[in-house]
What does this fold into?
Amino acid sequence: RLNVVPIYLPPLRDRTDDIPALVQHFVKRYAASNNRPAPRVPDDVLNVLKSYAWPGNVRELQNNVERAIVLCQG
It folds into this structure.
């Protein structure tokens, strides 16, 4: 790895305004790859996601959205 240009990106817990866009992106991605319709994510669900600390950052959010798309029936 080369450390040519360091990029500082704050943790997801400090960027809660990014969560709805990230969720929408992951919903579309995993719905398409699993041949499912992309569900609409209600505002109250987004508010719960925004209130969580996300210690695993974006990867944890991504994994949870994928799990929900694969396992949920509705």
